[in-house]
């Protein structure tokens, strides 16, 4: 059996916020964790200690940073920030619900359910644009820290799309898999090639609402 340490990337979605609970698009709005989200982050942090992170890299948004800080406190490792890990920019949809957005954009529901990428408002990003910047971070971390475990804390849509692009699965694959739960973790590891070891794991009793396919 090969005992050589493997390169691992552990992707963590932030804990619940009030906007998550209300079904509102957050995008890059700096919304903090709510009480449930803080509890989720603490439970997750205790669970992930066993993975022995060498470092934690996080989005700079409050909800991700607070989740990363909880993991860092439990694991005793440092946290660095990379703004490229932010959630997809939803522009003028920020703070609105899917119902409100659909009422003003008749094409929205069809695009959402057909798996077609689209720009989140005239001033926002596409899923591909958000995923490409996250995938770039994953490639850089994997190359810079071989045979170590790096935690990457971010957001539902951006992490999901970024992961699929990083693995070479393409954008369509990101629309075919479930959204990430609040405070879920996903493990990618490398042994000659990258593989998805596990996806969307949660601490039992501490899961939150699923991310919308268009991201909130």
From TrEMBL:
Has keyword Isomerase? yes
Q: Quote the PROSITE patterns the UniProt record gives.
A: PG_MUTASE
Cited Pfam families: His_Phos_1
Q: Which residues form a coiled coil?
A: none
Superkingdom of the source species: Bacteria
Binding-site residues for substrate, renumbered to this chain: 13-20, 63
Q: Which SMART domains match?
A: PGAM
Q: Which InterPro entries match?
A: His_Pase_superF_clade-1, His_PPase_superfam, PG/BPGM_mutase_AS, PGM_Phosphatase
**Gene Ontology CC annotations of this record:** cytoplasm
Identify the keywords attached in UniProt to this record, alphabetized. Glycolysis, Isomerase
Keyword presence, Isomerase:
yes
Kindly identify the residues recorded as the active site.
Answer: 14, 87
For this chain, one GO molecular function annotation is: phosphatase activity
Q: What is this protein called?
A: Histidine phosphatase family protein
Report the source organism.
Propioniciclava sinopodophylli
């Amino acid at each position: 059996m090969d005992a050589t340490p493997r390169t691992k990337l552990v992707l963590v979605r932030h804990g619940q916020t009030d906007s998550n609970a209300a079904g509102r698009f957050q995008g890059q709005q700096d919304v903090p964790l709510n009480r449930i989200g803080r509890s989720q982050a603490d439970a997750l942090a205790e669970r992930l200690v066993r993975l022995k992170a060498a470092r934690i890299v996080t989005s700079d948004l409050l909800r991700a940073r607070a989740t990363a800080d909880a993991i860092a406190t439990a694991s005793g490792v440092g946290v660095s920030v990379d703004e490229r890990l932010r959630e997809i920019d939803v522009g003028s949809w920020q703070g609105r619900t899917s119902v409100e957005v659909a009422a003003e954009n008749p094409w929205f529901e069809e695009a959402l359910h057909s798996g077609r990428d689209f720009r989140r408002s005239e001033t926002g990003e596409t899923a591909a644009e958000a995923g490409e910047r996250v995938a770039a971070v994953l490639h850089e971390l994997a190359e810079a820290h071989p045979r170590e475990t790096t935690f990457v804390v971010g957001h539902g849509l951006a992490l999901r799309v970024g992961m699929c692009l990083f693995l070479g699965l393409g954008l369509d694959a990101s629309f075919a898999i479930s959204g990430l739960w609040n405070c879920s973790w996903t493990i990618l590891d490398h042994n000659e090639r990258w593989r998805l070891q596990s996806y969307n794991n949660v601490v039992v009793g501490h899961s939150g609402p699923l991310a919308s396919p268009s991201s909130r």
